[in-house]
Design a protein that fits this description.
By secondary structure, the chain is an alpha/beta fold. It has 18 helices and eleven strands. Helices cover about 50% and strands about 10% of the residues.
Length: about 450
């Protein structure tokens, strides 16, 4: 099968989830656009959205409709060419509505896995559970006569493990989209030992069509993104524990969250990012990494304690943030969780004390939103961190230590064989995590 033939029947597993919905949308639009090309006239394109929850699938349909309108408005010139022979379509609104209806006609919302038995390609975005993934992939493989290709969105589980356990014979590749898939440009590509060369070739073709940037990672648990992120978490948690000699738990969390965001000039502080991903998700990823690497240092008791107290973080169906380490009101941080009293302490109760303890920030320090739009960031960053290294304050010391640790983690990903180059690590953190600069740099030395 060539690219077009493969894309004629696509199934997305976990299609109504946070990641699955974006993956479903991207593939649905791609299939519909392919079918509108003159050379594909008469060919049938179907995309199965597979999820166990009917309620969630209803929400998925609303999401797809809203996103389709945005996409249609952006490609109105192309759509005018596509529909130029349609005399009944004059106004832009008419063309847009026609396109939306047409794309939706390719979509099949289903709650049974049997629909995927007809697919040529399976995009898997279900729970990050090795045993569940193996069970589902094995089921499809044994019942689908098309010898489908499997694209797993796992962010941590080795692809070779899934390949062997599900008996996929190399018809699998790690295709790790970043959240949210519709917006994020990065895809981490991970091959098993015997992944078919044509699947890898197809992966690059699909990424090009979806306007995505591929970074290849070697097949070592956690890959590049989570290989760095999980260890970044562990450093922040270790620093919180060190700060408990002088500060309360909420104060220590606030301090490290502020340092990792404002002093390191990142889009989110480390604890806000954990909340965004989900405390439960981060814990699960660490446990998977710990199991496969036989490394007890990758376990985080704090995450487990938060979960034991019923604090999970994550996001609601509308994308708004659930409370985790931090409490949110309309997207803004308004409190910090106290693990000892199992309640949130208002930000106003601790902010003044913590900011005073952190000390004066470097005068040249600028917000992430300002820095990210600068064309030549290196001289700006050099000035900022040179000033920071010369300021004897708690905030500056914590930031320099954090930056050096981040660099150490990143370099170890290369020396341990996870990443192929230092440039790949930097690209993942810049493209996938929206960092303004890569962790491998000379700013903190």
């Amino acid at each position: 099968m060539n690219y077009v033939e493969r894309m004629q029947r696509v199934a997305v597993l976990g299609a109504a989830g946070k990641m699955g919905s974006g993956i479903l949308f991207l593939n649905l639009v791609e299939c519909a656009d392919l079918s509108l090309l003159p050379e594909n006239k008469g060919k049938t394109f179907i995309v199965y959205a597979v999820d166990i929850s009917e309620e969630a699938l209803d929400g998925l349909l609303m999401y797809v409709k809203s996103q389709l309108r945005k996409v249609a408005e952006k490609k109105i010139n192309w759509l005018r060419e596509v529909y130029q022979s349609r005399q009944d379509l004059i106004e832009n609104a008419e063309i847009i509505n026609e396109y939306i209806d047409y794309v939706l006609s390719k979509l099949r919302l289903v709650t049974t896995i049997e629909s995927s038995y007809n697919a040529n390609i399976i995009f898997e975005a279900i729970k990050e559970d090795p045993h569940l993934k193996v069970s589902v992939l094995k089921n499809i493989n044994e019942n689908n006569k098309n010898k489908p290709w499997f694209f797993t969105n796992t962010s941590s589980i080795p692809i070779q493990y899934l390949n062997e356990q599900a008996n996929l014979e190399g018809r699998i590749i790690g295709y790790h989209f970043y959240n949210p898939p519709v917006v994020q440009k990065l895809v981490e590509l991970i091959s098993a030992k015997n992944t078919l060369p044509e699947i890898k070739e197809f992966s690059y073709k699909l990424a090009e069509r979806l306007n995505k940037t591929i970074v290849e990672s070697n097949d070592i648990v956690g890959f590049i993104g989570n290989g760095h992120f999980m260890r970044d978490i562990l450093h922040a948690v270790n620093e919180v524990n060190n700060l408990l000699n002088k500060f309360t738990f909420p104060e220590a969390v606030y301090i490290m969250n502020k340092v990792s965001q404002e002093y390191l000039i990142r889009p989110m502080g480390i604890f806000q990012l954990i909340d965004y991903v989900g405390i439960d998700v981060c814990s699960y990823i660490m446990n998977v990494m710990s199991e496969h690497l036989k490394d007890n240092n990758l376990k985080c008791n704090l995450l487990e304690n938060m979960l034991a107290n019923g604090i999970k973080g994550g996001q609601y169906a509308d994308g708004s943030q659930k409370d985790g380490f931090l409490k949110y009101d309309k997207g803004k941080i308004v409190g910090v969780y106290d693990i000892n009293s199992n309640q949130y302490i208002p930000l106003s109760d601790i902010q003044e004390k913590c900011d005073a303890a952190l000390g004066q920030k470097p005068q040249k320090l600028i917000p992430w939103k300002t820095l990210i739009n600068q064309k030549d960031k290196e001289p700006i960053l050099t000035e900022i961190f040179n000033e920071m290294k010369n300021i004897n304050t708690l905030g500056s010391k914590l930031a320099i230590t954090y930056g050096l640790k981040s660099k150490e983690i990143a370099k170890n990903l290369v020396t341990s064989g996870v990443a192929k180059t230092e440039e790949d690590v930097n690209k993942v953190l810049i493209t996938g995590f929206y960092h303004a600069y890569g962790p491998i740099n000379n700013f903190f030395d």
